[in-house]
Design a protein that fits this description.
The chain is an all-alpha fold. The chain is 85% helix and 0% strand. It contains 9 helices and no strands.
């Protein structure tokens, strides 16, 4: 009996170690997959604050909470089952679909670049012409934000799925859940901070300490700059991530020359220059971004001609 108990405890210990190792693998895979979705995450954080403009400050955080809840539903109730079914029954479609998403990112980024060059405000929230009930306006803004989030979340989940496509189905599900929840919390936490930064600054500007008051006024004045920088970084991230997805997808599908050119060039820079790894990453991001601009501009031109 004692021997059987010891054997049972050994089995439990072995299973515990196996489960711990599996969780470590899931955590590492989730971190890697999440990092690859950085461009979409930055753009998500840059896009969302515009949905609370024009509303009372008291409703900003509740609206962000509603959008975040809608984002969780998008990821876990719609996209997660679709991703797992795709992985189980049509894994060959993951790379083409990921490339479609990458092309969409390139198109969105190129549209913003073209709009900036022309002096337009691509994606700006239209001004309401007629009085609208506050509850109806809030509901409409939340609905628009959740629909936009569905597109960005689909790209995030596709990037994560492509990175763990060879893992067991349970690990895939856990990674997608971890990535989805972590990114949602991170994005909408940052969005809440951005939206309330001016209120925090106003509060600090009323304090007794001159240093704190100066800090508060600086926070308020810096808000337009922060939003502009975030928008630029988001656009750049969309282009380099979208271009990188197209390079990698083409390589997987057998057209490896462009990806190999970028890889060889970055490797040459890595070995030839100080801070080689940083410069190599910048070279890869720059070339991916150039490809993203080119592909996005072509798609935008075709779509504009079709519309007209």
């Amino acid at each position: 009996m004692p021997g059987g108990l010891v054997a049972l405890l050994d089995d439990i210990a072995g299973l515990t170690k196996l489960a711990a190792a599996s969780l470590d693998d899931v955590g590492a895979a989730a971190g890697k997959a999440g990092s690859k979705a950085l461009g979409v995450v930055v753009d998500d954080a840059a896009v969302t604050p515009r949905y609370v403009t024009g509303l009372t400050p008291q409703r900003e955080l509740p609206i962000i909470a509603k959008i975040a809840l809608g984002s969780v539903r998008n990821k876990l109730l719609i996209l997660l089952p679709a991703a797992l079914l795709l992985s189980a029954f049509a894994p060959w479609a993951i790379t083409p679909l990921l490339m479609v998403g990458g092309a969409f990112l390139c198109f969105e980024g190129a549209e913003k670049v073209l709009a900036a060059v022309k002096g337009e405000h691509h994606g700006a929230t239209p001004v309401e012409e007629t009085p609208v009930d506050a509850a109806a306006l809030e509901k409409a803004k939340v609905g628009d934000a959740v629909r936009t989030d569905l597109i960005l979340s689909a790209e995030i989940m596709a990037i994560a799925l492509a990175d763990v496509a060879d893992a067991p189905i349970l690990n895939q599900a856990l990674v997608l859940i971890l990535v989805g929840l972590a990114i949602t919390i991170g994005v909408y936490g940052v969005v809440a901070l951005i939206v309330k930064l001016d209120d925090i600054g106003l509060h600090l500007a009323q304090r007794s300490s001159s240093f704190v008051r100066t800090l508060g006024r600086g926070m308020v004045k810096s808000m337009p700059v922060i939003m502009q920088v975030l928008s630029v970084v988001g656009t750049a991230a969309m282009l380099w991530v979208g271009g990188g997805i197209l390079l990698h997808g083409a390589e997987v599908l057998g057209f490896a020359a462009p990806a190999q050119f970028v890889h060889h060039l970055s490797e040459s820079v890595h070995h030839a220059m100080p801070l080689g790894s940083v410069v190599a990453w910048l070279v890869t991001a720059l070339l991916s971004g150039v490809l993203g601009v080119a592909v996005g501009a072509i798609i935008a031109t075709i779509l504009h001609k079709v519309r007209h």
